[in-house]
Design goal:
By secondary structure, this protein is α/β, with parallel strands linked by helices. The protein has 2 domains: about 160 residues, Rossmann fold; about 120 residues, Rossmann fold (3-Layer(aba) Sandwich), CATH 3.40.50.920. The protein is built from 11 helices and 12 strands. The strands form 2 sheets. It has a 7-stranded mixed sheet with strand order 2-1-3-4-6-5-10, sandwiched between helices. A 5-stranded mixed sheet has the order 7-9-8-11-12, with helices on both faces. Helix 6 links the parallel strand 5 and strand 6. The radius of gyration is 18 Å and the shape is globular.
Length: about 300
């Protein structure tokens, strides 16, 4: 059990030792987004913007224009939600090489409550031209994802979470290529982020193919369509609003290319305070409910 934000905090230091152009920016949440170690080791490459997320985006674009590779981190309710205009105009419109890595996404953020549980960020970011969207499933895949996006030119959004979550064995990361975790006969379950653990456990109970769709934009259309044609039934699972997120991306793809039965599991309202387990139950993100919806 490790958190995806911890994976980010460790790997960004590893990469900075190898690449002097990597810099990091925070908006008064340095320990929470796990950049405190980076700040200690590379104080001249760390920029504290204070509670001014929009200004932080402008700072990052300026650094990117000077050939730096800026990693911008905050809670997902602040980046992108609080500074969408600046991300759209300054980052995406100019195709700036800015990496946005946000934590505390989803209802598994828990007791922080609805105001701090970002459930719309995937939908927001995948709608922006030039923006790539990545949602790693665990600590180790986060490290691999951060390494991969450092080599990609242009804007990338990486969605991370707060609590420690189960580690899934041998999760590789190839940008834009979904991972098929198991093959089944009856149905296909597609999930992203740490909730993939529940999806995989449910998949074992209903003999389902389970796909880790860690890159939501660009979507791995070939893999998804391949299994849609085989199983003819798809269930998507995400700790996010069912509108516009992973389920929305899959629905668009299937609707235009190969319509099949589709069930989307996710939030349909704001979150609320509670333990991660209580909130997963409330929003149907449990093994039991995924099995029920598959049946």
């Amino acid at each position: 059990m490790k958190s995806t934000r911890d994976g980010y905090g460790e790997v960004i230091v590893e990469l900075a030792k190898q690449n002097k152009n990597i810099v990091a920016l925070s908006a008064d949440l340095t320990p929470s987004v796990r950049l405190d170690d980076f700040e200690k080791k590379f104080p001249k490459r760390f920029f504290q913007a204070g509670v001014a997320e929009a200004n932080m985006i402008g700072m990052a674009v300026g650094l990117a224009l000077e050939k730096k590779i800026p990693f911008v981190s905050s809670f997902a309710v602040f980046v992108p939600n609080r500074c969408l205009d600046h991300i759209r105009q300054s980052v995406c419109y100019t195709d700036a090489n800015v990496k946005l890595v946000s934590t505390h996404a989803g209802v598994i953020t828990g007791p922080d409550g609805a105001t701090h549980q970002a459930l719309e960020d995937i939908a927001i970011m995948r709608a922006l031209p030039n923006m790539k969207v990545v949602v790693p499933c665990d600590y180790d895949q986060t490290k691999k994802a951060i390494k991969a996006i450092t080599k990609i030119k242009g804007p990338v959004y990486v969605r991370l979470t707060r609590p420690k979550t189960p580690e899934l064995p041998k999760q590789q990361f190839k940008f834009g290529k979904a991972n098929v975790l198991r093959k089944g006969k009856n149905i296909t379950i597609i999930a992203c982020g740490p909730i993939l653990y529940e999806a995989l456990e449910a998949g074992k109970k209903v003999n389902a193919t389970v796909i880790n769709c860690h890159t939501i934009d660009p979507l791995d259309k070939a893999t998804i369509l391949k299994f849609a044609k085989k199983s003819k039934k798809i269930v998507t699972v995400e700790d996010h609003q069912i509108k516009g997120g992973l389920g929305g991306a899959i629905a668009e793809l299937l609707g235009e290319n190969h319509p099949v039965k589709l069930k989307r599991i996710g939030a349909d309202n704001f979150g609320e305070s509670g333990t991660p387990e209580q909130l997963k139950k409330k929003f149907g993100l449990t093994v039991e409910n995924i099995v029920k919806q598959c049946k």
